[in-house]
Design brief:
Radius of gyration: 30 Å
Helix content: 10-25%
Number of helices: 16
Oligomer: single chain
Low-confidence stretches: 1-36, 284-289, 392-404, 429-435, 437-441
Structural class: alpha+beta
């Protein structure tokens, strides 16, 4: 592949980019790299939460080196502790969490095109998903773009890293270190000017005895009034979807590294080094990091406020830009325009303006909505497990250095060139208002000698509780139309009677009538063929269709179409909005794939459900016609659980809720008194005394089956859970997605009856996928199979099997399930 996905931090708040552009010195030799003006470090890991925030803060905030983190993936294959988004939606969240972390520690952010396909156990398995050459192309392009003197690999590249993606990240770091200067293998025209890193280190987290260098990353910075470890704790805590809230530590905190290779001080024993930069000059003599702007740059601020939050494609929004000079020196400002951001007064493009100390200058611009604001790596379908970025080819190889991650909003960033005013500059007589006077006819400021002030275009408003709120302006369709879920389940041949919600979001500047129609498969009818309603400017409205009928087994499409003045809309976006990250949106067609499954559901079932992490199982159960009541953990003690045939606990629910742990005795008593308690997988908290009725053990690292096609052996075909109300056969384990099971018990009390056995190729068999145990008058069912991924994906066999777990509720069934057969 010829292009890599490169990323600089996307600032979604008012920002000033403190850059002084200098002549690039791309060299393929070590000594050529020694002449670079600043030291740079590139940290390489596999996932958004792999980065060493302590090292990054110590380097970047300490002024020791410009630092960047390269995450091979966006973390799409993980789980979500703050919501129910998984897959690509989770990747969006974790991408933005990395940006939030970088805003704290000040470093830069890069990615490759790799999609996180889920846990893997080896580098070989990982390369089966990510073509090695394609991935290395990306990493080399990032190295040439960022031009690091030092590369730090988070992992070792060996099986002790555990996750196969971890292993590959370290292997990529080594290969990029060795080959980024090879212009034959990686031509300059495609990959940018050659660059040869000088040193390679790996983190010694997991092998401290191999460490050759220790750094006190807990050092206190009196100017920042914080230690770097405190900054790192705040940065680390941005990974909220992964539950990585961290302490902001004070005092000495050691970080340890092992030198893997060096081109500058090979003769110095690794253990004798005192710094990552031994043998590397800090910068060329006479070049300051911020040049003439060292004292001025931190006091220049710029904001660009739009007159609306959503801008329809093809429309234009008014933008008021203000540059504040809060320094003690006068500066000269030249506003810049782009293809999509045009200056309202053409004279501004030809003249600069002197802005006195403690004053500001305003100008008007217009932003034209030409490109949808969306995660640009999702603009096209993936090629296997690689994203296909829609980036233009760069004619100037030096341009690789400044490709931002936030390409979708790059045309929504206002820039201005700022220089120090010279003594001969004509200044205004007074400075009583917000604006300083313009000095017309001045020559344009030379970009190479200017500070580049930047500000994203935002919509600003006041929230009565949260105060000042700024949201990046979003270019959206005139009408966005979506249904609640892309996939839903139904029972084949059984009457469907459900409501489908269609959500409309308007970017029109005035209230607009919108007509919505629903296209249905044969066998289904709606309560109306179409409806018209008026949606206010920038408004959101939801209308509901009642759909009834029957469909045969298979996949059927339900599609919503919005029409305005003869123009139709059949796609829309779903907002992804959490307080700690910039809001985003994911686009999808306005349709539902209705998966009709041949499944029997006892009419007597009535389920109470305690939601877990990233848990979309409960809606799937309702789609199968099972009455489900959601119960929050804090209400368990006051709930009458005896009226439910089954109580279900979602995946990782105990990890996410201390209230659930505290109230777990009530759930165990429910089972002891005759109920059926079905608990989906947890992590190591499940081994604590009192969490489960009988003890289990989970190994470290835990047992899991990552191959979704791995064979599953039925241990006892006569087991009730495999026969009632649905007969489970081998074909029911076909078509599963991402993984089979995780955090599977290695050992368990003999009172648990295992139902299935499974394993990845070449690994020991594990019997902890489904375990059924009698407990008092009732049953306790523990399953580590990945139902939380299968049911929302509409996997038929997993749906049938889960219904069987829920149906172990009658006294006769309980007795049979607790026995050795029927």
């Amino acid at each position: 592949m010829k292009r890599a996905v490169l990323a600089l931090v996307a600032m979604t708040v008012v920002a000033v980019s403190q850059r002084v552009h200098a002549q690039d010195r791309a060299g393929s030799s070590a000594c050529g790299n020694c002449a670079a003006d600043v030291r740079r470090v590139l940290v390489i890991g596999a996932h958004p939460d792999d980065e060493d925030t302590q090292l990054i803060a110590w380097l970047q905030r300490g002024g020791r080196a410009e630092t960047a983190y390269l995450s091979l993936t966006r973390g799409d294959g993980g789980q979500n502790l703050i919501g129910n988004e998984l897959g690509e939606q989770l990747g969006i969240i974790r991408t933005e969490e990395l940006f939030a972390a970088r805003r704290v520690d000040g470093a830069h952010q890069f990615f490759t095109r790799a999609y996180d396909f889920g846990f893997s156990k080896s580098a070989v398995e990982t390369y089966a998903h990510w073509p090695k050459d394609s991935l290395l192309n990306d990493v080399v392009t990032v190295v040439r773009s960022w031009r690091p003197h030092v590369i730090v690999a988070i992992f070792s590249g060996t099986p002790r890293d555990g996750h196969g993606q971890h292993q590959v990240s370290a292997l990529m770091a080594r290969e990029a270190y060795e080959s980024a200067g090879d212009t034959v293998r990686f031509p300059v025209k495609t990959f940018g000017p050659a660059w040869t890193p000088l040193k390679l280190y790996r983190h010694a987290w997991f092998s401290p005895t191999a460490a050759t260098l220790r750094i006190n990353v807990g050092e206190y910075n009196p100017e920042l009034r914080r230690s770097y470890a405190e900054i790192a704790g705040e940065s680390r805590s941005q990974h909220r979807s992964q539950g990585f809230g961290a302490l902001q530590r004070r005092g000495v905190v050691w970080d340890q590294f092992a030198r893997e290779a060096s081109r500058v001080n090979e003769s110095t024993p690794a253990a004798a080094e005192r710094s990552l930069f031994d043998g590397i000059a800090a910068r060329e003599p006479g070049i300051a990091s911020n040049g003439p702007f060292a004292n001025v740059a931190p006091h220049i601020a710029m904001e660009a406020i739009a007159d609306r939050q959503n801008l329809a494609v093809g429309d234009s929004a008014s933008v008021l830009v203000t540059l504040y000079n809060r320094s003690a020196k006068a500066v000269r400002v030249l506003p810049e325009g782009t293809e999509n951001l045009r200056l309202a007064a053409s004279g501004l493009a030809r003249s600069s303006t002197i802005v006195l100390p403690d004053s500001s200058f305003q100008w008007q611009m217009y932003l034209k909505g030409t490109t949808l604001s969306r995660p640009w790596w999702l603009a096209q379908p993936r090629s296997g497990d690689l994203f296909v970025p829609a980036l233009p080819r760069l004619q100037d190889p030096a341009g690789w250095r400044d490709i931002p991650e936030d390409v979708r909003n790059r045309h929504n960033v206002v820039t201005a060139l700022v220089t120090l005013a010279t003594p001969g500059d004509r200044t205004p007589k007074a400075n009583t208002g917000r604006e300083s006077a313009a000095s017309g006819g001045q020559p344009q400021v030379a970009r190479s000698a200017a500070l580049i002030a930047e500000a994203p275009v935002v919509y600003r408003f006041v929230d009565p509780v949260r105060g000042d709120i700024q949201r990046p302006i979003a270019v959206t369709p005139e009408v966005s139309v979506t249904l609640d879920r892309p996939t839903e389940l139904a029972r084949a041949g059984v009457q469907v009677d459900r409501f489908f919600n269609v959500t409309l979001r308007s970017a029109f500047t005035k209230a607009t009538p919108i007509t919505v129609s629903l296209s249905l498969p044969s066998g289904l009818t709606a309560d109306s063929t179409s409806r018209t309603l008026t949606v206010d400017s920038a408004g959101t409205r939801t209308l509901t269709f009642r759909v009834r009928g029957k469909v045969p087994e298979g996949i059927h499409q339900i599609k919503a179409t919005a029409t305005v003045a003869g123009r139709t809309y059949e796609t829309g976006y779903v907002p992804i909005d959490y307080g700690h990250i910039a809001p985003q949106r994911i686009y999808r067609p306005s349709q539902v794939s209705l998966r009709a499954v041949d499944v029997n559901v006892p009419a007597s079932l009535h389920v109470a459900y305690v939601r877990g992490v990233g848990d979309n199982v409960e809606p799937a159960l309702e789609q199968l016609g099972i009455p489900v009541t959601l119960i929050e953990p804090r209400y368990i003690p006051t709930s009458d659980l005896s009226k439910y045939t089954t109580v279900v606990v979602g995946p990782r629910a105990y990890e996410a809720s201390k209230e659930l742990i505290d109230n777990n005795p009530y759930l165990l008593n429910y089972a002891k008194n005759g109920g059926t308690l079905v608990v989906q997988y947890g992590q190591y908290e499940m081994t604590r005394p009192g969490m489960m009725p009988y003890p289990i053990s989970i190994s470290r690292p835990h047992d899991r089956v990552t191959e979704e096609t791995a064979p599953i052996t039925i241990l006892d075909s006569s087991a009730v859970v495999l026969r009632q109300p649905n007969t489970i056969r081998a074909e029911d384990f076909a078509g599963w997605v991402q993984e089979r099971g995780l955090y599977m018990p290695r050992t368990f009390d003999e009172r648990y009856r295992p139902i299935v056995a499974l394993n990845d190729p070449g690994e020991p068999v594990n019997r902890g996928g489904i375990m059924v145990a009698p407990y008092g008058k009732g049953l306790y069912v523990y399953t580590t199979l990945a139902f939380f991924r299968q049911l929302p994906a509409g996997v038929p066999g997993a749906s049938r099997l889960f219904v069987n777990l829920l149906s172990l509720s009658s006294e006769q069934t309980r007795r049979a399930a607790a026995g050795v057969g029927n």
